[in-house]
Amino acid sequence: MYETHFGLEQRPFGETVSPAAYVASPSRDAVLRRLRYALDHGQGPAVLFGPPGSGKTLLARRLTSEFNGPALHMTFPALSAAELVAHLAMELGGLAAHPASLHTALRHVQGHLTALATRGQRPLLVVDDAHLIGAASTFEALRLLLNFATNGPPDLSLLLVGDAELLLELPPGLADRLTAHCLLGPYTEAESATHVLGRLAMAGASSPLFCSEALIALHKGADGLPRRLNRLADLALLIAYAKDLAIVDESTVAIATREYGRDIAA
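The structure assignment produced for this chain is given below.
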């Protein structure tokens, strides 16, 4: 709606998990390097955790886009152990239908992982919203999958992504094997500004569109969380368009923050 008014090619702050939408920042890049080192070297499972809206899924997608090997994303993790292994067996390929048994699914997974390992490939399994896993047996199935090893290290790399309670829910057998557990917290004020300006540049903006005071107000209103930052910035641009403003000022962000707060309360 406001794209033409501000000279944009697309909406800059729409919801997306596309790796292309990733804006580099010191805190996010540090987490990426830590996870990449652990997973690339096949040292064991890793955990990425943080509050809702901190950008965990986008960062995981960025990681898998740079991973040296096939990557699988599991976005509905509240499965039984049998369902999880069956889903993985079908995602790895070669099965036209749901495996008849857990044993069949495990044999297929092991065979496929072994074939990949002989070609020097190690798939990465990303389990998003892993804090929603309710059964201890499902965590145990993930641990057992890491026992498949053809040439030393596990044939499968595993990244669990979720809210902070995920660390409390991990059974000891899986927690003891973690090689990285990375917290993704809120942006700093400077990182929030970098994020906003970076997303605007991706959308084709030829000028910042937010004054410096507005960028500070966005950071405070969003508590430094990327999802809130995106929604506030999007709403602020819409309000500025309705007021026929050429640039978003601090007062416009204040209006957007109040509107956003009412939407959450509703």
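Interim note for the steering committee: Strands lie at 46-49, 71-74, 124-127, 157-162, 180-183. Residues 186 and 225 are 5 Å apart (CA to CA).
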